[in-house]
Every structure is written in C-alpha cells, then in structure tokens.
Design goal:
The mean pLDDT is about 95. The chain starts with 7 loop residues before the first helix and ends with a strand. The chain has a 6-stranded antiparallel β-sheet. Strands 5-9-6-7-8 form a 5-stranded antiparallel β-sheet, with no helix packed on it. With about 150 residues, it is mainly beta. The protein contains 2 helices and 11 strands, in the order H-H-E-E-E-E-E-E-E-E-E-E-E.
Amino acid sequence: MIQQLAAPEVIYNRPANQFVAGFVGSPQMNLLTLICDGRYARLGEFRVRLPETIAVPPKMIVLGIRPEHVAIAQSGQPVTVRGDLFLSEHLGMGHLLSVAIPRGDREPLHLRTLVPQGTAWQRGTLELWLPDDQLHWFDSVTGDRLG
C-alpha cells in the first residue's frame, strides 16, 4: 500500500506518517514516544512545546527529528535536552552519536545526532538542541502526521 506519493524532498522533509518518516533517510529518523503535559511533550527533564497547529494535545505523542538536525548545543543556544553519550559510530563524513535521555525510573530514551567531521564533543553528558522548525509530530496511535 502506498503511504505517500510526492517528490523525494517533500517525502523527506514532510513525511505523511511515522512509517514514511522512519523508512526514508539514513540514518533513520529519531522517533520518540513522549507523554504530553498540556501544550508540552516531556523529553527527559525538559519540555518541548507542541505546535499551535495541534489543537487538542493528546496524552501521548511521537516526536520525530532527523539525526542531522539534532545539534550539540553551542554557547547562547537553548538546550532542548541533556543526556549521556553511550555510543559513537565513525561514519567517515562524521560521527553518529547515540545519547541516552534519562526519564527517572523509566527506561531512558535514545536520541541520535549526526555531527560533521571536526565537530568538538566529549564523552559523558551532552547538551543537545532540537530546532523547532525540524520537529515532526505524529499521532502515537495511528502514526499520522499532526500539525
């Protein structure tokens, strides 16, 4: 069954659903199921504001962001999330860093960031920035794109 019929850049930049988001692109899009708290989704100890286009916030939501859009927070940039680096994969053109986002007594969430060759980073705790304009939101039950 065809999930989305559009130009490749449209499919990549605006996937119609969670299946398409996870299928298109390499490395695969981060897809994190989060609990909503009013107009925010809880990501570890941080809260990510839901877009105004989501009229009624659900109890659970899936946040999608491509690893190349997750950035190590620089001085002056807002920190979206903090976590512990647990894996670094050298890919030639850069490193794919896997970060565990603690959630109290629950299993940590895993978020990957693709950092270009020459980007400074250290083992241990990383502070990451997730630009609002690169976030994708999906219904946690149907997988359909929200907003």
